[in-house]
Amino acid sequence: MVQSSCGVFVGGKGSHLPLENCSRIVGLRRCDRFHRCIVGLQVRGGVSSDDQIGSLPSFERGKRLSELSTLGIGGPAKYFVEVHDESQMSTAIRICREKNIRCFIVGKGSNCLFDDRGFDGCVILNSLKFLESQGRGVYRVGSGYPFNTLGIQTSKDGFTGLEFASGIPGTVGGAIFMNASANGQETANAIKSVEVLCADGERIVHHKGHSDLVYGYRLSPYQTMPGFMAILAATFELEPCLDARQRHKSLLERRKKTQPVAAKSAGCIFRNPGTGSQSAGALIEQAGLKGIEVGRAKVSDIHANFLLNAGGSSAADMINLIELVKQQVKIKLGVDLREEVIYVPYKLS
Fold first, then answer.
1. pLDDT band at residue 183 using 50, 70 and 90 as cut-offs
2. For residue 262, how far is the Cα from the chain centroid?
3. Where is pLDDT greater, at 52 or 262?
4. What spatial distance separates the first Cα and last Cα of the chain, rounded to whole Å?
5. Which whole-number Å values give the CA distances from 284 to 46, 208, 334, in the listed order?
6. Catalytic residue among 218, 237, 245, 339
């Protein structure tokens, strides 16, 4: 969810698009401060003719974004294409640029909230799902590969560093973009190199230790990197550990007991405030907000930082619930919560 005038990786815990903060979302209540994702390339205007894109192979119309989101919310995308390798990714982005079509790339859609009206542009589904073993503890992985599957495989092989990935419903690209972390581990610490695609079509490899590549809590260099369009692949370098598989199993069992893993959600909605503060979930629970609902959006009874689609929730319901939670935590506890999930608007206003 979690993408600046450059491209970014949203939806994922899995996808790419450009991100800026925006002002008020017209027509929705209590959302003046909600962070909004501005999707599109550095172009202006629309498609000169619908036939220009409609006639291209592999593109389709009207794909419902609720099918591409773990929240199960979102209307139809004007255009949709699934890509399976770097060449297809590059070609799809180039076509959208040439036709002046705003686009974004989505992986598992586990960190984004799509608009009820859908998206007036092209959604590119990232299915770069390869996994290559390149030596002891070294894995090269496509950005569309499931992050939880990578955690399971590497732990099973006896390597530590990604046990925490087990149960995270995102892609490798999304995990890198948001620097996913849990239980004392984070994605950045396991990275050896990252392969990216730039807006001009150039392919660049960033190696670990580069002074300009700064990672932090829910922060990666790709969120603000000029000209960045997409993460293509990454190589991870892990250390051997006899207890890796058992640690992975323990973390997965803990996740199942403490999180609503079977419900429709985007994972944790809010970032933890930081050193010296309780976690976002603990603050929401302390404010007495577990179980509250706005429309069909609900704060989980199991983990308060999970906001659920309780069946038929709209994007408006979810946004209004997010704002209500933020307001109540601020009023009762004096803490400002910041969203981790990203709202993807129908079109630029």
1. confident
2. 19
3. 262
4. 20
5. 42, 37, 12
6. 218
Task: Specify the residue for token string 């299915």.
Answer: 127
Q: What is the mean pLDDT of residues 116-133?
A: 96
Start-end of H helices in 187-314: 244-258, 280-286
185, 226, 229: which is closest to 203 by C-alpha?
A: 229
Q: How confident is the model at residue 211 (pLDDT cuts 50, 70, 90)?
A: low
Cα 95 to Cα 186: distance, rounded to the nearest angstrom: 35
Residue 218 is a catalytic residue: yes
Q: Residue 146 to residues 3, 153, 163: CA-CA distances in angstroms?
A: 19, 11, 14
Q: Which of 36, 96, 268, 339 is catalytic?
A: 268
pLDDT tens for each residue of 257-309: 999 999 999 999 999 998 778 999 999 999 999 999 999 999 999 999 999 99
What span, in angstroms and rounded, lies between the C-alpha atoms of 29 and 255?
Answer: 33
- Locus of tokens 């892990």: 238
**Secondary structure (3-state) at 267:** strand
Q: Are 108 and 127 in contact (CB under 8 A)?
A: no
Kindly state the average pLDDT of the residues 20-31: 32
Catalytic residue check, 94: no
Active-site residue (options: 163, 323, 339, 340): 340
Q: Can 340 be counted among the known catalytic residues?
A: yes
Task: Check if the beta carbon of residue 78 is closer than 8 Å to that of residue 123.
Answer: no
Task: Give the burial class of 203: count Cβ atoms within 10 A of its Cβ; 0-12 exposed, 13-18 middle, 19 or more buried.
Answer: exposed
Instruction: State the Cα–Cα distance between residues 152 and 98, nearest whole angstrom.
Output: 40
